[in-house]
Amino acid sequence: MTSPQARQVTLADVDPSASMVMSEFFRTYTEEIGKLTGLLHKCDGLRIGEQEFMKRCARLGKAHFDRQPIDLQAVFKNLSTHNVITMADIEWLMDYCTREKPSRDVTLRPSEESREARAKASRARALQAFKTLMQHKRDSIVVAWREVLDPEGRGQITAQEFKEGAQQLHFKGDVADVWDALVFDQGRSQNRFPREGEEDDYDEDEDEGEYRLKLADLEPATVECLEAWKRQAALRYGSLAKAFEDMESELKPLVSKEEFWHFCGEIAYTHNKRLLWDVLDDRDVGSILLTDIDRKAAAKAFTEDDIRIATKKHAKLTQVDRGRITIRERAVKQCGANKRNPEELKSSLQGLMTQLEARFNSPVRAWASVLDPKNKGKVKPDDFLVGCAVGGYRGSRSKLLKELKLEKDASVRLKSLAPKALEECKSFKQRATGKIGTVVKSMETEAPGPAAKKKAGISMNMDSFTQVCSRIGYEGDPRKIFTHFDVGGGGSVNSKLLRGMDASGKDDKVVATVVKKHHETRQKRIQQSAVEKAVPPVKQLTEKQDGFLIAGREKRGKKLQLEARKKEFLLFVAKEIGSLARAWRLAFDPENRGEVDVNAFVSGLQRCGYLDVNAKKEDVEKAKELFELFADEETGAVTLQILDPRTTKALYQFRCRVAGRYGGVKEAFLEFDPGGDGTVTAEQFRHMCHEAKTTDNIRRLLEYLDPNDEEEISLDLIDEEAAAQAKEFAQSVQEAREKKMEIDKKKGRLHMKTPPPRVGVVVGPKARKKARERDSGQQGLEELKRRLIREHGTLVRAWQKELQPEDAEEVVTFEAFQGLFQAKGINGEAQAAWDAIERESDSSLTLLEFDPDVDADLHELRARMVERYGTMVNAFDELDEDESYELDQKGFLNLCYECQFRRNERRLFAYLSSEQGQRVRLDAIDGEAVEAVKLKREKDAEAKDPEADGTELATRSSRAGTTAPVAGAGDAARAFREQLQRKFGSMIRAWRMIDWMGKVALTKQEFLKALPAVGYAGNAANLWSSLGVQEGGLVSLRHLDPQVFMLLVGLRNGCEQRGGLEKVFSQSDHFARVEFFALCRKVRMPKPTWARLFEQLDAKGAGSVSWEDVRFLEEQWTWVDEDEDPLDEPTPIRNPSGTRTLPPELPGSPQRVAGSGHLCLSSKPRIITGMKKSNSLPAITPGIRDNWNDRHHIPDTRYNKDTQLLHLMSCVLTKDRDRIKRKVAAKMVEVPTMQWLEENMPRGLEDEEDDEGDEEDSDFG
User: Fold this and answer.
1) Across the strands, what pairs with 412?
2) Residue span of the structural domain in which 153 resides
3) pLDDT tens per residue, range 280-293
4) How far is residue 1068 from each of residues 1079, 1122, 1170, 1171, 1215, measured CA to CA in Å?
5) How far apart are CA 171 and CA 1044, in angstroms?
C-alpha cells in the first residue's frame, strides 16, 4: 500500500485548466509588466477589486504575435478570495508557480510565518471593517469612541470594555482580531485578547499589566491633526500664545465652531479640521476652550479671570444637534422618499389619470389634445394606447384596457375614462340653466369694446369665471370647471360658450359641446394660418417684391450717399492735414476739451478748409448732417473715439504698456521728465514707446500729441492725473536736492558732486543720421585734424610745427590755414572748413579755437590740483622745491599722476611747455598763484635769519632727508587736514581710518602705510615733517589736528570737574545736538566751539554723541597733571631679545615694541566698542517688534495708497507705541499715579478749584 507521503495532490490534479491559466498569467505578467507584488501598488488596504484588476492587466488580455490572450476573468475568479485579491493571494500564486518539485519525503505544510502573515492580514481587514462600522453608525470614529466605547470620558478602555462597545455597535466580526490588530500587531502589548474558552473567569481589574486602549491608538490621525494645528498656528503668528491673542472670537478663550474653522483657514490648515473639532468638542456643545488645546499658551494669552469665566460658560452649554446624519439614516431617508405608495400602484387607470392631470391639469384637455385630437367622440383601443404613450404613460397597457372593462371590439369614450369630470360639468350645467345667460350678458355689457364684437363673445379669465360661478350659486370648485372648459389651455373661456348653457337640454352633452367648439375653433385657426402662409399669385407677389426692391434701393442709396460723404470728408482731412488725430487737435478741439458740439464741429470744418467761412446755408446744413452722422446718440457730441478710434485705442494701449514696463504712468513720466516740466521731447517719447514695446503706433501718437511738429509733447495729453502727480513729486525731489546742495556747499563738498563724464561712442542709426547731416566743411575739418594727429601725435604739436604762428598773439590767418589744407590733400573747400570752426575773429584762428580740448585739459588740471592740495598756492609751494617755478616733463607727468588727472597730459604739456618743449613754467598754469607763492616766500625769508635761510635753501636744493620741515611743510599739513575734513567730516573719523588697528599712536612707517586708505596722494615725507613729530617719535590724534585735540581736552577737563567723563555721559544713552550744546554750557566750553566739537565727536554720523564716542579719551590716554599721553597698552610689554626699543615721544607713555616675531606676539588686538547683544541665543523676555502685516498680499496702487499707509501705521508699525506703553507702565509701578499728579500738577490749580467750589456754595446759600 502506498504511503501517504508518496503522493501529493496539487492544483494541477484538481483543476488542470485553472493551473494552466494561473501559470500562464504569472509567466506573462512577470515578463511584460514586472513583479507580481506591484499589482497591489497604491491600493487601498492592499487589496484590489475586479474592475481595477482588469484595468491594470488590460494589456495581457490582448493577443500578441507570440502568445494568446490571457483569460483575465478566469484568473480573477480562481485567484480572488471574497471577490478581492489580497497580498496573501499574490504570495500563494508566487509560491505555487515558483515552487521546486518536492521530494518524496517532504510534506507540503504551510510555514509558521505564512500562517502568521495571513492571520495578521485577516486582523487588519477586521480592524478596517470595525472602523467603517463606527463611521456608519456614529458618523465618525471619534464620536463612536466618545459615545459608545468611552462614554465616561476616561480616555482609555480595557479589552472587556472594548468588547462591550463593539457589541453595542452590532459588530459581526471577531472582536479579538480587532483588539489584536490594535494592540498586539502594533507591539503595544505581548498579550492577546482572551478567546472564548481560554479564560472564562477573566477580570480586567486583576490584571494590573493589561494594556488600555486609547483614542490615538484607534485613530492616530487625531494626534497628528492637533500637532499640525499647533505647528501651523505658531508658524503663522510666531507662537501659540500670539495665535490665541489674534484669533477672532467674541468670547475668547471660548471659541465657536464657525470661528475655529475660520481661523483654520487663516493659518492655511490642510489637515482634517472636522476630525480635529470632534476631538476638541468632547461634549458636543458647539464650542471649545483654547485651554484644551494648550493650557500654558492660553495662560500667557489670557488672564485667569477670562479663563475662569469662559470655563463657566462652557460648562453651562448644552449638547446641540450635530446637523449630520449617518450613512444608514441617509439611506433610509432616501429610500423613504423614493418609495411609492402602494395605493398609487393599485390601478393602472388611476395612474394614467394622475399622470394626465399632472401634465394637462384636466382629463378633458388631455382627451382633446392627445387621446381624441380629431374629435370623433370615441377612439379604438390601439389609437387610445398610442395617445396614452404620447401623453407619457409607461405602465401596463393590457392592465389598463382590462380596468376599462371594454367589450369586444368596443371603443374608448371619455365617460369611461373620466366619469368624475363629466359629472362635475353636468352639475355645473344644471346649476347654470336659466341663470348664466343673464349673468354673462351683464358682464359682456360692462366689458369695454364695440357691441358688434361682444356678440361673438368675450374672453373671460379665471377671476371673471369665478364671479359667474358665485352669481349663479355654484358651490363646487370653479377652478376645476374652468380647467375643463379651457380645452386649449389658453387661460380663458369664451362667454358665448357659457351663454349656450342657459338653454335647457341634455346635461351630459355639455363636455362634448365644449370639445366640439374647441375643435371647430382650432380648425378655423389652422385654415386661417394656411391661408396666410399660402403663396399669393405671381402678379401680386411680383408687385410686392418690386416694392421691397425699390424701398431697399432707396435706403441703400441714402446710406451709400452718407458713407460717400463720410469717406470724402476723411480723405480730405487725410490729404490736407495728414491724419484725423492731427485734424482733431488743430481744427476741431484745439482747446483739448475732449468733445465738440455741432457749432464747434462746423467751426472745425471751416478751420481745416472743408467748409468755406462764408458758406451758404445749404452747405452748413450738410455739415450739420455730417455731424449727425458722427455724433453719439446719448451725448449728442463728437469725440476722438468716434472720429478716430484707432488713435484712442493706441493711446490706451500705450498707457497700459508703459504702466507694465515702469510700474505706472507716473513712474514713466519721472523716468523721462525728472525735472517735472510736464513735457518730453519727441525723441524721448519714441524711446518710451520702444521701451514699452508699442512701436507700431508711434507715428499715429505723435500726430496727435505733437500736431505742429514742435518736437515737444505735453504729458497732460497722455494722462493728466499722472502728469500732475509726476510734476508734484519732481518738485519735491528738486527741493530736497536744493537743500542737499546747500548743505554740501556749506561743508565744501561741491567738487565731489560733479557728474562723471559720459563714456562711450554713439553708434547706430542716430549717429549715421548726424553724420549725414554734417556739411562738407565739417567733414573736411575733421579729416584735416585726423591727418595732423596721425603725423604729429597731437594737434598742439602739429600747430607748432606746421602753422608756426609768428606774431605774439599766436594766431594764424586764413591764407596759412588754406595752405595747410591744400598741402595735406584734403578733399573739399578750405573756406568751408574755415567757416566750420567756431571763432571770435573772422580773420584769425587761435590754438584754443582749433583744439578746444586743450582748454578743457587746463581747467581739469587746475580743478584736480585744488582738490589735491587745497589751493593752487599750496600746490606750487610744495612742487617748486628749487624755486625755479618750472617743471620738467617727468615732474609734470608725476604731478598729473598725483592729482589723478584723467585727460591727455602729454597734449597739455606740449601746450604749456616753452619753445624747446622741455620744461613748463608754473605761471602758464596759474600766474596769480605763482605771484602769491613768491610773495609768501619773501615774507617767510624776512622773518628768518640769513643763516637759517641759507641752510633751509641748501636743504631744499639738495633734497637731503632731515627732520626739519621743508618750505611749505606747514601748508602740507594744513592741506592734509582740509582734505580729511572734506572727505570724512570729522578728524576723529579720519584718524580711525588711519589707525584702523587701534594702536592709538603710530610710527612713521605705519602712518605712511595708512595714507592711501584716506586717499592722500601727496608727498608723504613732507607731510610727516609738517606734522612736527620728533625723529623716531610717534604720531597721534594730537599731531593730526592740535585744535581738535585741545577741544577734546577742554571737554574732558570740564567733565572731570563734574564727576568724570563717564559719569556725565552715562546720564543719557544719546546726546542729541541740542542736548550736547546744553552739556557744553554746563562744562563751560566756549560757545563758538560747540558745533565743531559735536561734528568731530559724531564720528558715526548718527546725529548724536554717546559714551561710546568719547570713551577713547579715558581708555587710550593717561591724564597726569592735566597732561595727556597716548596709551598703547594697559601694561608695558617687555621687548624681545635683539629688538630695538623706540624712544617714547611723551613723558609717561609706554614704550613701543619694535619689530614682531614669527608669531606676531607684539601685535595688539583692536579695542572692541559698541558690540551689540548676540541674537543667536533666545532672549528670556520677548523683544518688541512690529506686528504681522495681514495685508501684505494686497499690492499697493494709487487707489488704496491711503488705506495701506493708515493700516501700516496703526496696525503694523507698533514698536514705538509698545515701547512707550512699557515705559509708562514701568513709571506707574515706580511712582504711584497720585504722587505723580501731586509732583507735576501746576500749583494754584487746586486752590482755584476750591475757590470756585466756595463760590457755588455761596450762591446756593
Assistant:
1) 379
2) 112-194
3) 777 777 788 888 88
4) 11, 26, 16, 18, 21
5) 97
| Distance (Å, whole) CA 971 – CA 877 | 8
- Conformational region of residue 474, where left means phi above 0, alpha means psi within -120 to 50, and beta covers everything else: beta
Task: With 0.90 as the threshold, say if the pTM is over it.
Answer: no
Mean pLDDT of the chain: 76
Q: How far is CA 928 from CA 220, 738, 839, 871, 931, in A?
A: 96, 33, 27, 12, 5
**Do 658 and 692 contact (CB within 8 A), yes or no?**
yes
Q: Which three cell numbers stand for residue 1037?
A: 590724534
pLDDT above 70 covers a percentage of the chain that reads 82
Asked if the peptide bond before residue 381 counts as cis, ω within 30 degrees of 0, the response is no
Helix (H, G, I), strand (E, B) or coil at 48: strand
CA separation for the pair 239, 236 (Å, rounded): 8
DSSP single-letter state for residue 149: I
DSSP per-residue string spanning 282-317:
TT-SSEEEGGGT-HHHHHHHS-HHHHHHHHHHHHH-
225 and 256 both lie in a single domain? yes
- 1043 bridge partner residues: none
pLDDT digits (tens, 9 = 90+) for 1115-1163: 777 776 544 444 333 322 223 333 333 333 443 334 444 444 545 554 5
Which DSSP string corresponds to 1049-1098?
Answer: HHHHHHHHTTT-HHHHHTTSS-EEHHHHHHHHHHTT--GGGHHHHHHHH-
Q: Which amino acid is at 560?
A: L
What is the DSSP secondary-structure string of 877-929? HHH-SSS--EEEHHHHHHHHHHTT--S-HHHHHHHHB-TTSSEEEGGGT-HHH
Q: What is the pLDDT of residues 312-351, one digit of tens each?
A: 888 888 776 655 566 667 677 777 666 666 555 567 888 8
Residues 45 and 63 in one domain: yes
If asked whether residues 383 and 488 sit together in one domain, one would say no
DSSP 8-state secondary structure symbol assigned to residue 1199: S
The grid coordinates listed for 346 are 393599485
On whether both 60 and 18 belong to a single domain, the answer is: yes
Looking at 98, 123, 155, which one is the last position of a domain?
A: 98
In a domain, 819, yes or no: yes
Which contacts qualify for 873-876: CB closer than 8 Å, 24 or more apart? 873/929, 873/932, 873/933, 873/936, 873/971, 874/968, 874/971, 874/972, 874/974, 874/975, 875/929, 876/922, 876/926, 876/929, 876/930, 876/933
Asked if the structure places residue 129 within a domain, the reply is yes
Tell me what the mean pLDDT of segment 752-781 comes to: 67
pLDDT in tens, 435-449: 777 777 777 777 776
Rounded-to-integer distance, Cα 101 and Cα 108, Å: 11
| Mean pLDDT to the nearest integer, 1064-1083 | 83
**8 A C-beta contact, residue 86 and residue 46:** yes
> Are 386 and 443 members of one domain?
no
Give yes or no for a contact between 778 and 834, defined as CB atoms under 8 angstroms apart. Answer: no
Tell me: do 40 and 90 sit in the same domain: yes
Average pLDDT over residues 472-479: 82
859 and 840 share one domain: no
Q: How confident is the model at residue 454 (pLDDT cuts 50, 70, 90)?
A: low
Rounded to 5 degrees, what are φ and ψ at 173? -85, -170
Mean of pLDDT values over 387-408: 82
713 vs 10 pLDDT, higher one: 713
CATH number of residue 895's parent domain? 1.10.238
Q: Which of 509, 534, 559 is the last residue of a domain?
A: 534
Q: Is 313 inside any structural domain?
A: yes
Whole-angstrom CA distances from 178 to 122, 166, 174, 184, 204 are 9, 10, 7, 10, 18
Helix (H, G, I), strand (E, B) or coil at 1176: coil
Candidate from 106-115, 152-161, 328-337, 567-576 with smallest mean pLDDT = 106-115
Average pLDDT over residues 759-763: 64
| The length of the chain, given as a count of residues | 1261
| Domain total of the chain | 9
Clarify whether residues 824 and 857 are in a common domain: no
Contact 267, 233 (CB under 8 A): yes
Q: What is the pLDDT of residue 291?
A: 81
**Within a domain: 1136:** no
